[in-house]
Amino acid sequence: MGKVTGFLEHDRAENKLVSPKTRVKNFKEFIIPYSSKVLNQQASRCMNCGIPYCHSSCPVNNIIPEWNELVYDEDWENALKTLHSTNNFPEFTGRICPAPCEASCTLNIEDNPVAIKSIERSIIDKGYEMGWVVPEINKNKTDKKIAVVGSGPAGLASAQQLARAGHTVTVFEKNDRAGGLLRYGIPNFKMEKHYIDKRIVQMQEEGVEFKCDSHIGENIDAKEILNEFDAIVLACGSEEPRDLNIPGRQLDGIHFAMDFLTLQNKMCEGDKIQDKEKISAKDKHVVVIGGGDTGSDCIGTSNRQGAKSVTQLEILDKPPEKENKLLTWPNWPLKLRTSSSHEEGVSRNWSVSTKLFEGYKNKVSSLRLKKVKWERNKNGQLELKDLSGSHSEIDIKTDLVLLAMGFLHPKKDKLIEKLGLDLDDRGNVKANDFDYKTNQKKIFVSGDMRRGQSLVVWAIREGRQVAHSVDQFLMGKSNLPY
């Protein structure tokens, strides 16, 4: 515990942000780091609880009280070592994780939680600044070859851990650049892509080989991979988007959110996009269907592209402004969350269901909403009911509709078919979270491809754990953390 009375002396301080008016002019990150003084004060608020709920609620089990104390003592290098002992990529989670650890902070019962996420980001940024983030090369190489299919957070975490165990690791990525969801699904204003590039260079120096434009089952035979490698880790994510099959869905101007976000990220990378391929919000009335993080990313991107207006639709009821902490703590609470993208300009609509799209000359021009209500049936289950009455229907003008309603399961491509993998009831590749083995010998699966759509931090956790299981499978035992 850095300072016994720190939580009594200092209130939680939020990071200052570049103003919305300024930040929407570009796609750069806009969080202003703490000063050294404020950072020290925030670290001092940690109470080093006897039972640290922050630690247990973190999917990668970050040892949060320890590195808070080290930051307070200005022992930055050991803070980084402690952080890296549980998390391969804190620069990712320190930017895009929703921080369930903060919801579980003991201070959060009667006060505001320790600024754990901001402190985590400060530690890794300091590590890069000081040159402490270096390759960890294992000179005692094994003769085992491992293929990792997919280079999102789960794939990267498993590849790095296995390379550090001395194995020869090749990462196959179907896109033109490594990074998966991190590269093409997360806008640059939330996480700039040079952080991915730095990690890839580090991993290459540790011996990981990256093969992009390599789609297993499409331009590379899946059986060749089976024959060439001693083990295969599948980390292809959950990419099948939830669609909205209603009248007018075929009209031009209706797109999946990921198609929209990917094109913008490619332009941020300097790629030239043909006019016929572009999906632009400039001078358009944009409607985003879906109230989650992806929907929020579409809002921020639309505003930066120069949309005339942005409207977000959510089928669920509007959550309460604040949670009852005595009822919800230490769990993740349901409450109204306003993201930085919302602050930049959006009209939010709750308890509405989209019933049809209307168009003019085959282009979407409006959509019709129906007000809905959630009620419990006799079994206590929530049911969706359309409201009736003269004011129950709403028409909204739109030029561009972005579908951001989540993801169902992995793409049912030739990879799954050729490898003969079993699927669970939800369409995910079937495996448990003990050893991550599929029904096929030497094939493992982790991340969203196994658990369904989830958080980056859960993907990193599963990537680390599957690496332990693969190492144990190949060597009979493993010294990798589980």
Can you walk me through this structure?
With 482 residues, this protein is α/β, with parallel strands linked by helices. The protein folds into 3 domains: 126 residues, Alpha-helical ferredoxin (Fumarate Reductase Iron-sulfur Protein, Chain B, domain 2, Orthogonal Bundle); 163 residues, FAD/NAD(P)-binding domain; 163 residues, FAD/NAD(P)-binding domain. 34% of the residues lie in helices and 17% in strands. The protein contains 20 helices and 18 strands. The protein has a 5-stranded parallel β-sheet with strand order 5-4-3-6-18, sandwiched between helices. A hairpin with a 5-residue loop joins strand 13 and strand 14. Helix 7 runs antiparallel to helix 9. The longest helix has 20 residues. The chain is globular and about 70 Å long.
What portion of residues is helical? 25-40%
| Strand percent estimate | 15-25%
Rg result: 23 Å
Largest sheet: 5 strands, parallel
Poorly predicted runs of 5 or more residues? none
Distance between the termini: 27 Å
Which terms would index this structure?
482 residues, Fumarate Reductase Iron-sulfur Protein, Chain B, domain 2, FAD/NAD(P)-binding domain, 3 domains, five-stranded parallel sheet, 34% helix, 17% strand
